[in-house]
Specification:
Layout (H helix, E strand, L loop, with lengths): L1 H22 L7 E13 L5 E12 L2 E12 L8 E14 L3 E15 L5 E18 L2 E11 L5 E7 L1
Antiparallel strand pairs: 1-2, 1-8, 2-3, 3-4, 4-5, 5-6, 6-7, 7-8
């Protein structure tokens, strides 16, 4: 499953790069792409879960396409409990100004991993995300990346602090 998730992320990245290359000839519409990575916590629940994630986004006009790969693990139990890997492709709207960027998107995702009681699971779900970043330099930003996955097996929400 990890190979499938990695393959989906690489495929999405290549599609975004190809889209960006074809949009370069359009001088009237600015487009941007960025990569962010971060660490954060998962909500809700009584356990303590840590999330790590990487996200690549491409914005043209007011639209955004994002591909993400996230890993979440429950660290409140001994041995550690649930572990979930999610790969997602999302589409939404974005607003970029000189020093700020914000977006909201939804799409489709594949999740796989182990539940707290050790049961293997794999499912498809509806991922959502919201990003708010300050971009003091054209090549650097810092912000919050909130995301979640609504599905029939293990829905969750997380917030990452990203660079």
């Amino acid at each position: 499953m990890k190979r499938l998730n990695f393959f989906v992320l690489i495929l999405c990245a290549l599609l975004l790069i190809a889209n960006h290359s074809s949009a370069q000839g359009q001088k009237t519409n600015k487009s941007y792409y960025w990569l962010n990575a971060g660490v954060g916590v998962e909500f809700p629940g009584s356990s303590v879960s840590i999330s790590e994630g990487v996200n690549i986004s491409y914005q043209w006009q007011k639209y955004i396409v994002s591909a993400r790969l996230n890993y979440t693990t429950d660290i409140s139990t001994s041995p550690p409990g649930s572990e979930v890997v999610e790969s997602a492709l999302l589409f939404g709207v974005c607003k970029k100004s000189r020093f700020w960027c914000s977006s909201i998107a939804g799409g489709i995702a594949h999740m796989s991993g182990n539940t707290n009681n050790g049961i293997r699971m794999a499912t498809f779900g509806f991922p959502i995300e919201a990003q708010v970043f300050t971009t003091p330099l054209p090549f650097f930003g810092i912000g919050l990346y909130g995301f979640g996955n609504l599905n029939s097996r293990m829905s969750y929400f997380s917030v990452l602090l990203c660079l």
